[in-house]
Amino acid sequence: MRSGAELVGGLESPYDAQPMAPTRHRISRVALIVGSALLLSACSLIEIEDAKLTTFEPAGPFAERIDGLFWPVFWIAVGVFVLVQGAILVAVFLYRDKEGAKEAKQLHGSPKLEVLWTVIPALILAGVAVPTTAAVFDLTECDPDAIEIQVVGHQWWFEYHYPDADITTANVMVIPAGQEVCAHMTSDDVMHNFWIPALNGKRYLVPGQTTFLRLQSNEPGEFWGHCAEFCGLSHSLMRARVQALAPAEYEQWLEAQQAPATLPVEGTPEYDGYQVFLNKACIQCHTVRFDDETASNIIADEAFNGPDLTHFASRNVFAGAIFPEEGQSREDGLKQWLADPPNEKPGSFMPNLALTEQEIDDLIAWLESNE
Ligand code: CUA
């Protein structure tokens, strides 16, 4: 008997619907393809070569701690996914509507099931929360014997100060392998975030506050980092490196960095480059520490806003670690950078000083002599 209004599609009851086999097949085929593609791409991401910021290659105890949490949680999540999706698929295919089938029995909930699927996830989450919380606290509380390195975020580069040795450097943080470093971090302007994925997780740099980050590398090596907080126009160009040296080499490095810069000899390209530095406004932002009082150009701390260039040539990257670009020589990188800094790093506080080619060549000669 036909009641007042017809159901959509001219059916009298939803149970009269015809099985939609072709569509269902198509959907499951698409789901299979999309699923396999996702799985394959996930695998290739993990195995990708030359992924400089991968979190899957921990190189020290703190990053290993995070990795050790990630994998069990990941596999638990995979298990839950397979079970839940499996149950859905079983329900969809085993109990689908068939021609001539009776209407399914209508239930109003099942207290037993509801308790079960509330308690199991709660237990899983509690199981994950305990080691995670412990790790979060452990990873930020430095060992009292750790080597202190102060990190200051600037738009758009990282500055490192070693209080024990009283040296200041930029872009490349040099650490001894096998020893814990405690980064005491703050920012000079906006919020930044110091992230060396091979050595630890991310940690904010907040103006007016000090945050701490434990860093340690098992072996000597070079690790890539990046600012991980949007901090203005050139956030994406605010990179960092950590160079872990064998302890003896680290001591040598400290000693070399403590040495003052030497004054270039008159009549050399280095000397001409130094004159460019003095007369073309570079000196208003950059410091070079000389032994000679008359040459000293150390500017007031509050006026300082560019990297200390005393040992510029000892750093394998510059300008927020964006130069030299992949496959580029240092000289070409310096030429490109000095010719027009705001063009290379939008918003850069280092202006285009309209240097001539000769001035740039001289400046490079002098900078590269500051080892
Ligand atoms: Cu500094 Cu993003």
Short description:
With 371 residues, the chain is α+β, with helices and mostly antiparallel strands.
The percent of residues in helical segments reads 25-40%
Structural class by secondary-structure content: alpha+beta
Report the mean per-residue pLDDT as an integer: 87
Number of strands: 10
Distance between the ends: 96 Å
Q: Nearest-angstrom radius of gyration?
A: 30 Å
Strand content: 15-25%
**Oligomer classification:** single chain
Q: Describe the sheet with the most strands.
A: 5 strands, mixed
List ligands, each type once. Answer: dinuclear copper ion
Q: Give me the number of helical elements.
A: 8
The gross shape turns out to be elongated
Spell out the helices and strands N to C.
HHHEEEEEEEEEEHHHHH
* Main sheet: strand order: 3-2-1-5-8
Low-confidence stretches: 1-11
Give your account of this protein's structure.
The protein has 371 residues and is α+β, with helices and mostly antiparallel strands. It contains eight helices and ten strands. The protein has helices spanning 21-47, 61-94, 111-140, 247-258, 269-279, 330-339, 341-344, 357-367; strands at 147-154, 157-162, 167-170, 172-176, 181-187, 192-195, 202-205, 211-215, 221-227, 239-245. Strands 3-2-1-5-8 form a five-stranded mixed beta sheet. α5 packs across α8 (357-367) and α6 crosses α8. The radius of gyration is 30 Å and the shape is elongated. The protein starts with 20 loop residues before the first helix and ends with a helix. Residues 1-11 have low confidence and may be disordered. The chain binds dinuclear copper ion. Residues 153, 156, 192, 227, 229-231, 235, 238 line the site of dinuclear copper ion. Dinuclear copper ion binds at residues 153, 156, 192, 227, 229-231, 235, 238.
